[in-house]
Each structure stands twice: as structure tokens, then as C-alpha cells.
Amino acid sequence: MFQIEEELKKLPAKPGVYIMHGEKDEIIYVGKAVVLKNRVRQYFQSSRNKGAKIEQMVTHITRFEYIVTDSELEALVLENNLIKEHRPKYNTMLRDDKTYPFIKVTVSEAYPRILFSRQMKKDRHRYFGPYTSAAAVKDVIELVRKIYKVRSCNRALPRDIGKERPCLYYHMKQCDAPCNGKVGPEAYQEHISAALKFLNGDVEETVAALTEKMNKASEEMNFEEAMEYRDLIRNIHRIGERQKITSYGEEDRDVIAMAMDKAEGEELIERDAVVQVFFIRDGRLIGREHFYLRAARGDDEAHVLASFLKQYYAGTPFIPREIMLQKRVEETEIIEEWLSGRRGQKVHIRIPQKGSKEKLVELAAENARMVLTKDRERIKREEGRTIGAVHEVEEWLGLSGISRMEAYDISNISGFESVGSMVVYEKGRPKRSDYRKFKIKWVQGPNDYASMEEVLFRRFTHESKGEYDSFDRLPDLILMDGGRGQVNIALKVLTDLGIDIPVCGMVKDDHHRTRGLYYNNVEIPIDTTSEGFRLITRIQDEAHRFAIEYHRSLRSKEQVHSVLDDIPGIGETRRKALMRAFRSLEKIRDASEEELAGIESMNALSARKVYEFFHPEAEG
């Protein structure tokens, strides 16, 4: 259980992004903080006037997480990336899809230009940013154009060379007029190379020159001119601040780093470790995940990382083009070859040594260390709720190696069309992407056993649609919502298909509460205070909820379809008009012919057909 008060005490005094989760563990809010410890605490202080929206949001927060960054700038850009990716419910102020400015250098042109851009596109040009201040970007673009004499016009060169006279910037000695052939492409490229060097962060020479001019203007009492130089220097420093959250190339990559307990004492058989994965998609850091591991005392970080890579990428459907690690791992070439085969394209494993990429790996490592030191107790509690609970179920059933569990339920209310549900739990957690629902096709009427037989037969004879089709993976344990009858139905289907999977029934008492497990013709009582019991209860409730939810949606659709669409002459337009006017089927049934005919798109004939449908005694 996530204890908010306890977790607030562990918040670091560092910049970063905080992520609020709701009742269904969905992301409901993303924010940035200069100091995480101070900002996040404010949400839970009753004395603060937070406003109606935030007050409402706080009541729905069940847990929060955070990602530390090196600067407020990085936190701001990461906040923007995460909001775009997850569209949290309470981030209404950022739903205008706000973007941050870039500097664009059109290097694919014969005579490149330096432009202001709000987007980083997949083209052949160079992009720098994003930055937080549009005004600073514009000032620096103007400065770069002046210093390096880069053209600002939109003329198509070299096609239009000589067609017009040089513009005013040439006469102001701020452009060498490539539009008139006064500078060749080679000499112009030297200007662009110097400008690119400046934009890459090599600004010392330029700053030194501007500082000298500022001091000279100040000595000559030209304070306005000195202030202009001062502001330019400040903008250069703001633009020159390198940030790692968004990269220049629009790559897909995973950044992986870890933290591990020190091996102190011979008595320490196992060590705790946390692996942090940053997900970069289209050049933007859009999220992260951490994984809690137990390593043997003799295992070093390289060995643990290699083991993690093989286990993690064996089970994830997306393989990025590049994986960045904090250190080289064993069998790097073999793992690269394996991942390339899975992706269908070359995959590179890299260990960056300098620059923003190396800093990004270190940022992932810092977050891993923070999780290991500050979140260890919570992670272990979560592990107890999930993997620990699965181990308890294994002990009760005398099984081992359970990872994937599938649970099934049938929903049938008052004889209305039956539906089946399949929910999937992996390592004690719901895997909602693998949930499936079944509309019963072969069974007429309310027959739960026959309906379950159909569901299971269709599930285990389903033709795979690809490597990541959820039906392509067989469960380690099947859980049936019921006792002996449902278990025997499942065993019959599996036997007929030649499949060997353990089947267990989730038995409820007269008050519809889970009381035990039915396995191998024996009902096994379970400790109702254990995590294993809570896991079984969650799975049973989830299977039931998913079936009821599907059934409810079908009833809603079927109700309108069967009663209105089956009336001759009543198509979609008239059906919608009737529902808009009367709001319910009962009011349509109680309406007179005159009232029905008065509705938009209806006429006397269609009104008569509707009335006779609900009042067959009126026919003729």
C-alpha cells in the first residue's frame, strides 16, 4: 500500500517532474518542480489555498512518482513531453499542445539559413533546442546572423543568384550577399560551420568579444549599449545550456542504468538492485520504468545488466534502434545480433562516454539510486503484493514457475445474450493489453457451462496473428470463476486439444466472497489475511468486472438495435431522431402516432410502423 505521508518524507530537494496517479493507476497530473520536496508537499497541505480543480484532483491521488533532472529547464521540457504523451485529466492548462522553440539550420541547402522553428521535423536539417524562451532564441538568431553573416532571406539559391539587387543587410555589412554571387558556396559554408560550432555550445570566444564591448561601452558611459551587450551575453548562456531531455535526432532509444547494494559481509547471499529504463521516442523522453532485482552476492553490475537485457527484451514487443548503457555488458555482440533479429533492423548497444548522452545515462543511474535508497520499502511491499503473492499461490497448489495467469468468467443476466471475459495477470500484475472478451456465438440461452466451453475452445484454437498476439502465449495457470463444474469444463477442453495447463477454481461462499481454491478435486482453504488471498480476490473481481462491463455495453447497443433498427423503414437517421426526442424506449412505446409523426425525419407511414411495432393489437 502506497503511504503518501511516508513517501512525502522521501522526496529529494532537487529539480524534477512529479507524476500523480489516480484510482486506476492512470496518470492524472504531471508537473515540474524546482525543488520536488517542497512542491509535491504543497498538494497535501490542508492550509494552502489550492483552488477547486487542484482540491478535487488531490482527492483522487492514490500514489505519486517522480523523475529527478539536473536543471529546471530539463524538468520543464520533460513535463511538456509527458503531458503530450499521456494527456493527464487535470493538465488542462497545457492541452493546447504547447511547444518550445528550436533553432533550425537548413544545412541541406547550398546557402543555409538560420531560422526560428516550433517543430523538430524529420528532415535533413540541423535542430538545436528545445529552449524555454522564444525571445532569447530570436535574439541569438539575430546575433548569429550578424556575427557570421548568414543570410535571412527566402530566396531560392543558387537558382535566383543575380536576379535581384542585394538587400539592406548587405549594405549594413551583416550579409555577404550570396544572392548576388558576392560570396561562393565554399566561403559561405565556412560561415555556417562557425555558426554551428557556436550553436553547439562553443561560445567562449563570442562571449569574450561581447564582454569586452560591454566593458568598453560602460567605460565610455554608453550604458544603454552596455545593457544590450549584457542581455545578449545572458541570452547566449541561456541558449548554450545543454539539455538532455530532447535530442537533436528523432531517434527511438532506451536508456538503461542501474544501482546495486554494496556487497558487504560474507553473510550477504543476495543483493538488491534497481534498473531504470528511460523511454525516448522520436527524440523525446516520454516516460520511464524501474525494475527491482535480486542479484547474487558475486554478481557485478555488468552481469546483472546483461541478465536484465535478455529477460526484459524477450518479453517486450518494441525494440528500439539504440540502447544506451552505463557500462559494457557480457556478450554485447550476441545480444545485439539477437535484438537485431527481433527488430528486423540493426540494433546498437552503446556506452556513451561524453556529452549529453553520457549525462542522460547518468541521470537514469541517479534515478535508479534514488529508487533503491528511498523507495526500497515501498517496492518490497509492492513485490509482496505481486510476486510474493504468486509464490503463495504456488505453495498452496504445489506448483512452481507461475508467471502468467488467465482467469475466465461468463456474464448472463436474465437470459440476455451471454458474454465471456479473459483477464491476464503476469507476475501478479494485470496485463490489460492482453485482456480479451468473447460474444457467445454457438450457445443459445443462458448456459454458463456451454458458454465457458465455447470461450475456452475459441481461445486455445485461436490462430496466431503475430509474435505479440496475446493468444500466442499459453498461461502457466488457468483460474476459473467457480468450483468443480467450471474446472471440469476447462479440463475437458484442454484434454480434447492435447494441452497440459493446471486449472484451478476460485470458490466463493454464500456471501459471494472468495473462500478457497478448487484444485485436483480438492478444495484448498486459504489464509484470508495473506497477499495470495488478496491477489486471487483481485483476479476474480477483475474477471467479473470485465465481463459485466462488456455485457453492459452490448445490452445498451442491443437494446437500441433490436427494438428500433428491426422496425421496417426505421433506419439510423430516424432511430437517432426518435432517441433524441424521447430519450428512452419506454417513452417511444408510450407515444401516440401523432407524437411520433411530429418528430423530425418521421412521416405518417413511419410513425404508423413504429406504433404498430410496440402495439401489435393496433395492426390492421
Description:
There is one protein chain. The protein is an alpha+beta fold and 620 residues long. Helix content is 43%, strand content 18%. The chain has helices spanning 4-8, 36-43, 52-60, 72-86, 134-148, 168-171, 185-199, 204-219, 223-240, 301-315, 332-343, 355-374, 376-397, 448-460, 484-497, 531-565, 572-582, 585-590, 593-597, 604-614; strands at 16-21, 27-33, 63-68, 102-105, 114-117, 126-128, 253-260, 270-281, 284-296, 322-325, 348-350, 404-411, 419-426, 429-430, 436-439, 477-480, 503-508, 514-519, 522-525. Strands 12, 13, 14, 15, 16, 17, 18 and 19 form an eight-stranded mixed β-sheet that branches. A five-stranded mixed β-sheet has the order 9-8-7-10-11, sandwiched between helices. A three-stranded antiparallel β-sheet has the order 2-1-3. Strand 18 and strand 19 form a beta hairpin. The longest helix has 35 residues, at 531-565. The radius of gyration is 33 Å and the shape is globular.
Q: How many distinct beta strands? A: 19
* Gyration radius, rounded: 33 Å
The N- and C-terminal alpha carbons lie at a distance of 68 Å
The class by helix and strand makeup works out as alpha+beta
CATH fold-level name of the largest domain: Nucleotidyltransferase, domain 5
CATH architecture of the largest domain: 2-Layer Sandwich
Could you give a short account of the major beta sheet?
8 strands, mixed
